[in-house]
Queue: 2 jobs
Job 1
Amino acid sequence: MSHALVTTRWLQPEGQPVLKTAYVDAVATLPAYQGRGYGSALMRQLASEIEHDYVIACLETERPDFYERLGWKSGAVLWLGEMIRG
């Protein structure tokens, strides 16, 4: 009914250590099942799994409101986790 893909990307902000980053992509729910909470449940479970294995997660979307209500924060891309400030 719903699916998402997580790709590991290694980022290194200037002067910082390398970060294991989860890039979330291809998030979708079949139209007949949209609005029933399947996508939200998938993203909550995914966030829980990402939290244990990655320093930060990010995604790009045309629907930031959907992700923001699930705890993702807006910026140039949406992200989950603590940003490192230089």
Job 2
Amino acid sequence: MTTSTNNPAGQYAAVNGINLYYEMHGTGRPLIMLHGGFGTFEMFTALAPTLAQNHQVIGVDLYGHGRTALTDRPIRFEHMADDIAGLIGHLGLETADLLGYRLVVPWLCRPPFAIQHGSTHSW
């Protein structure tokens, strides 16, 4: 990504027994970007710089994808959703917007998550 960033190099958050890779770019309202299956945050290379002009873009590599290692934990969508909740807590965020693919977003539409304005469209 070629924008100015808060953290030009990614970091790892210890959540739910894994080290979840994430990057932060820009400032403003937090926007967590969730990639699709077999992808990484780099799927958003073309979109993230524009969003980072008005948001604090938080890009993750979900469990077993990209720079987040696969461990002996099973790959389950609800675990990945819990990892995102753990990242939100790790970063001390009260709220965050989500943008992503169907891989994990539907699992975030369950308690204890509060979706204020959600849409789970299939395109």
